[in-house]
Structure formats: C-alpha cells, structure tokens
Amino acid sequence: MNERENTDNLEATAVEDETPAVIVEEPVAVVAEPAIVEEPKPKPRTTSAAATHVVSGKDKDDVFLKQAVFKNPRARKSLTIHHLQRRLAELGYSDAAADRDGWYGDLTKLAVEAWQKDNKVEPTGLMNAKTIEGIFAGDPNVRVNTD
Q1: Helix, strand, coil percentages for the chain (3-state, nearest 5)
Q2: Measured between alpha carbons, how far is residue 20 from residues 15, 23, 24, 58, 120 in Å?
Q3: Which of 134, 118, 120 has its CA nearest to residue 68?
Q4: What residues pair up with 64 in beta bridges, in sequence order?
Q5: pLDDT tens-digit series, residues 22-52
Q6: Any residues with CB less than 8 A from the CB of 127 and at least 6 apart, and which?
Q7: Would the pLDDT of 123 be above 60?
Q8: ∠135-63-78 over CA atoms, to 5°?
C-alpha cells in the first residue's frame, strides 16, 4: 500500500469519526394522576347510646356476682367484668376506665373500693351482692344475677 492510499484511509476514518451520533428518544408514556375519591361518611347509628354497651346481641347482658372474683387465676376474660369496668367508668371511677380489659385486677379493685366508700358500703374492693346491685342500678344494658 502506498502513502496516498494510507492518507485516503485516514481521511475516510476521520470523516466517519466526526459524524455526529444520532440520538433516538424513546416515547414517554403519560400517566394520569389517579382521581381522589372520598370515602363515604358512615351514617349515624339510630340505636341509643345505651344499646351500644350490650355485647351479647341480646336486649340485655347478664352479669354474675360469682364471676366477679378479684385476680381469679382460673378465670378467663369475663363479660361481667367488662360490664363492671364500663359501668364504673361511666360513673366517674377512672381507675376502672384505665383497666378495661375484662380482668378483675388491681385498678378495677381500686375503683370498686372507691365506689364502696362513696356509697357507704364496707370498702373492701371486692364484690358482694349489695355492691354489684348498687353499681348496676339504673344500667339498662345488664341484668344482675347474684346467685
């Protein structure tokens, strides 16, 4: 190969190298923002506030004195204790409101004792017939059973 051919090849190469690159842009998909849909507001309940405390689905729940045992190790959560804690909280005994778990524990006992003091019943913090009947007097959600 002679010098002239080498020079021609270099020029050809140089020309090819100087060719601007072609940029191909890919189409961009346009995604619409999702529409904001407000959830419907719940309709107000037509039942009275007192009826919302009935748990069994019946007109009234039964509460049993024999199930209101302080720190009973064999007891499960109790509907009776749930109602006792709810009722004491309604009557303003905040210790019971802090202990609303269905177990008759220390805070529920303190609330029962406070109720007993305020109602001139011997303040033991333990349930007896006079205490359970007095606490639930006027409560439309329960039926007291002292047997």
Answers
A1: 40, 5, 55
A2: 10, 9, 13, 85, 101
A3: 134
A4: 145
A5: 666 677 667 777 777 676 655 443 334 444 5
A6: 65, 68, 69, 70, 84, 104, 112
A7: yes
A8: 110
Q: Which residue, chain included where needed, has tokens 């009722």?
A: 87
Which pair of tokens denotes residue 88?
Answer: 């004491």
Of 87, 79, 89, 88, the residue nearest 58 (C-alpha): 79
**Domains of the chain, each with CATH number or no CATH:** 53-145 (1.10.101)
Tokens of 14: 């140089």
Q: Is residue 62 within a helix (H) or strand (E), and if so which, with residue range?
A: strand 61-64
Q: Which of 68, 51, 71 is nearest to 115 (CA)?
A: 68
Terminal CA-CA length for the chain: 122
Per the CB < 8 A criterion, the answer to whether 129 and 112 are in contact is: no
Is-contact 121 130, C-beta < 8 A?
Answer: yes
DSSP characters over 37-49: -PPPPPPPP-S-T
